[in-house]
Specification:
Elements lengths: L26 H28 L7 H7 L16 H14 L1 H21 L2 H12 L5 E4 L9 H4 L3 E5 L2 E12 L6 E8 L5 E7 L5 E5 L11 E12 L10 H36 L1 E2 L2 E2 L4 H29 L5 H25 L12 H12 L4 H13 L6
Parallel strand pairs: 1-4, 2-4
Antiparallel strand pairs: 2-3, 3-7, 4-5, 6-7, 8-9
Helix pairs in contact: 1-3, 3-4, 3-7, 3-8, 4-5, 4-7, 7-8, 7-9, 7-10, 8-9, 9-10, 9-11
Amino acid sequence: MTTTARRTPRIGVDAEDFYHFESLLHPTERDLLHRVREFMTTQVQPLLLENWSKATFPSEIVPGFAQLGIAGLPYREPGCPGGRYLLDGMIAMEIARTDPSIATFHGVHSGLAMGSIALCGSPEQRERYLPRMARLELIGSFGLTEPAVGSGTAGGLTTTARRDGDAWVLDGAKKWIGNAPIGDITVIWARDVEDDRVKGFVVANDSPGFTVEKQEHKFALRIVQNGLITLDGVRVTEADRLQGADSFADTAAVLRLTRAGVAWMAVGCARGAYENALRYAVEREQFGRPIAGFQLVQDLLVRMLGNITTSWGMCAQLSQLQDSGEAEDRHSSLAKAVCTVRMRETVGWARELMGGNGILLDYNVGRFVADAEAIYSYEGTREMNTLIVGKAITGLSAFV
């Protein structure tokens, strides 16, 4: 009597990058992407469960992050790599694929904080700050959102800046400021009381009158250290006012850049949930065989893959528009709106596929489900981005 050994299921070779998007990168770019993948898998992944559960940030990863040389990657400025936005986007996706919180840490520092200085700073300011930030010797934050002002920051900013001799005095509060409790400097956006225009300031977090309270009790992006900042007569020299930021249009230029990065992060979050669900489906057996062989499970997996592949393609084209200098607000807004909706669907299907185990952090999907809720909302809600795109395609503004 002979017996036939059961064949061990094998995940398909194209299960992760189904349309081979990585082939759009140059060989040296792929090498860097794979180094980021290795770092996230070996150095960061083992720390996530404990830190996510405790809402703490694993500061021990910062030196390794610095060695990757990815902070400020797309900027052609002092100390910055000057790489392609396509590579920068894929790296943002790769980091989020392991953990959206760490991707947010990177996005706030590299995109929002460094981006503000790269786009709006004087040559002296770029030389003074960007090389140290690229080496993560200074960790940056971006202070725009306020306790009572979220989507309405363009016209309702309440933090004020008052000129006093050769300095400025800042008063107000900022909320949801990622990295602030662990950071060194924060780009604060405030309304000039004299001309009513929005201006940007680089503020040291240890400045007198600058206080940060860590925000607790979040159920999403728990590793991200968000701060409630209070500015009580904080004095900032004219040398630390961003010389190229003189209206909210300049703030919006930074957001246009980073909104594209959030779309990439949404793809990474969806990939992380899908890939963990796929591995689970191949390994989990019911009724004597892997559940990956069931029709309804394959239906869920293909829906997830379709969402990811569609979003990945949109982001790849968006980044190529950035690299050619053709990207506009409407392009970033459509990607952010669409990719975050697809992400939300995908992480939900991943949890559904895993049944009750899907809510256990040990199975590495529930964290993506929770974190997706924050990505869905920040850097412009779906509704606000819809109105930006709606105005672009109709020529009519629906903003009130």
